[in-house]
Design a protein that fits this description.
By secondary structure, the chain is of the alpha/beta class. The chain is about 25% helix and about 15% strand. It binds zinc ion. The site of zinc ion (ZN) has 6 residues, from α5.
Length: about 280
């Protein structure tokens, strides 16, 4: 998730973003993709690739798409296309399971009390809905999802990155891990924690359990700037029945944060209870 920067976005929209991949790719995947193929594949999955970056998360190489979703080449290759169009709630083809599973989440002990409270708030919002899965604090060793503090660089031509998720659930029903929160915004030890901390934590957990951005095909809805239209938007994102058919202000899965706290909206709750 990132914070919107109207002007910067408008400026960047006027620039052509050239994307380079170095020759020294570390992995020896059978299906190694060129940067053009990665972009094409992501677009076919319905991702907005305007700010696509070659990146790494916790020492693992991959790509960051839509500002806060980190995907390895393997994850990109394994994502299955599906149908759905518009600005609604979307999920990936893999979700977390089985029903009744307790997801252990570790919050970096370095975070101060305000951040720890925001973390409890975020988990409490999920647990209050009586979903098929529940969340509880755990140690790092026992965790399914780790929430860590790290300095995150800006997305090319974009705003400040608030947090980043390690993609989506795998085919075995495990949530993605880790989640990294930007230490320059949510300073682990000092005060001045922004009001959207619990929302950003809930947002990144949302990705980890399979939720896509509700405005992935028109990021200008929450991020501002000019229309970011994707010709193939919709493929790779499964529409969640019963969720609003138009843009929903305040959804926790909007691409960009407006800096305020955004507890689950009615549409968010429908999306969560429909999937879980
Ligand atoms: Zn996001």
């Amino acid at each position: 998730m990132k914070r919107n920067h109207f002007l910067k976005f408008a400026l960047s929209a006027a620039m052509v973003v050239v994307f380079f991949v170095s020759c020294e790719t570390e992995s020896v995947e059978e299906t190694e993709l060129t940067s053009t193929e990665v972009r094409a594949k992501l677009e076919s999955l319905g991702f907005n690739t305007d700010n696509l970056m070659e990146d790494s998360l916790n020492g693992v190489s991959g790509y960051t798409v839509e500002g806060d979703i980190f995907l390895t080449e393997k994850q990109i290759n394994e994502m299955a296309p599906a149908n759905g169009v518009g600005t609604e709630h979307y999920r990936t083809s893999n979700i977390v399971g089985p029903t009744g599973r307790v997801i252990n989440v570790y919050m970096d002990a370095d975070f101060n009390s305000t951040m720890q409270a925001a973390f409890d708030d975020a988990l409490g919002r999920y647990n209050a809905l009586g979903l098929d899965i529940t969340f509880q604090r755990s140690s790092s060793a026992n965790s399914d999802i780790e929430v860590l503090s790290q300095r995150l660089k800006k997305v090319r031509g974009g705003g400040t990155i608030l947090g980043r998720s390690a993609g989506f659930p795998d085919a075995s029903g495990n949530p993605a891990s880790p989640i990294v929160l930007n230490s320059t915004v949510y300073n682990p030890r000092r005060g001045g924690i922004p009001a959207d901390a619990a929302t950003v934590i809930a947002h990144e957990i949302g990705h980890a359990i399979g939720f896509r951005h509700t405005d992935f095909d028109q990021r200008q809805y929450s991020c501002g700037g000019s229309a970011a239209d994707e010709g193939q938007a919709g493929v790779g994102a499964i529409y969640i029945p019963g969720t609003p058919s138009g843009p929903e202000a305040g959804s926790w899965m909007l691409s960009c944060s407006n800096g305020t706290d955004r507890p689950f909206t009615g549409g968010d709750q429908t999306a969560l209870t429909e999937v879980y």
